[in-house]
Amino acid sequence: xAQQIPVSPEARADGPAGPDGTHALGPDIAYLRHAIVNVxxxxxxxxxxxxxxxxxxxxxxxxxxxEKAAAARFGxxxxxxxxxxxxxxxxxxxxxxxxxxxxxxxVYAHRLEQPYLDGSAAYPAPDPSVGGGLFALISxxxxxxxxxxGERLRRLPEDGSVPPLPGWRWLHxxxxxxxxxxxxxxxDRLLVAGDAFVTTAQESVYAVAVQETELHGPPKYLTVxxxxxxxxxxxxxxxxxxxxxxxxxxxxxxxDLREGLDRLARDFALVAVPRDGRxxxxxxxxxxxxxxxxx
Length: 295
Prior knowledge:
Residues 1-22 are annotated as: Disordered. InterPro entries: Metallo-B-lactamas, NDM-1-like, RibonucZ/Hydroxyglut_hydro. Residues 36-248 form the Metallo-beta-lactamase domain. By secondary structure, the protein is of the alpha/beta class. The chain has helices spanning 63-74, 96-103, 114-117, 134-137, 205-210, 226-239, 255-266, 268-271, and strands at 5-6, 23-26, 29-34, 37-42, 53-55, 82-84, 107-109, 121-122, 153-155, 168-172, 181-185, 190-194, 214-215, 243-246, 252-253, 290-291. It has a single domain (5-281), classed as Metallo-beta-lactamase, Chain A. The strands form four sheets. The protein has a seven-stranded mixed sheet with strand order 2-3-4-5-6-7-9, covered by helices on one side. It has a five-stranded mixed sheet with strand order 10-11-12-14-15, covered by helices on one side. Helix 6 packs antiparallel against helix 7. Residues 291-295 have low confidence and may be disordered.
């Protein structure tokens, strides 16, 4: 059974890292890979204070790397207009509380992610039975408790707009988490996909280390609704993106990206969905998570 969709190395959208450690994908967008996950900077170099936006906030311990890259790219002391979250899993919000406080920045997310970002609920347990590598096996050790952003947490507007970013839209792409979103700019068909799909086998330590160029569904061990995940990939494939940066793996562009994404959508049940798993037969329900309050 196929478990990935190979993509030509020519489809890679990332060039060498710049002086700030980021990889430019266009004149106003770049990403920084820190350990196992990517964060995205939207804004032209030198944009200055409140002239840019951060998408996702990496793993715990990534704060210094993110702040250093932001200062080099936008100017010393330049704070973002906002932090946008694709979802609230630990590897995407590891530094969000500290960064939001240090930068006095609002944090936008979908309303269905709010319980995991306001301290009130923990995610359903990861599923180590999906197989595919060491990360899947040790996934029960990954933190599921929520962060608490307090008054800085904002809901993305219901009209699909992204307040700090004219010309961008957010798209509800659930499955990997209930309130997962992707960000889309139609002008240049640029997609920030989060974990709706990824370009590495995130279950495998080896695959993450070598960053082979291939398309996968969302990371299996934290995906809680596979039918919703399929619908989300189908919706993103219909956009026909020119460039896509995902939460894990290398960004891709061009015809190979679109053809691979079309195939992923068409063959999702064979390529992406595990044969067995806690959430394969029945999606997680809200009660599968746990109420949580900080001491």
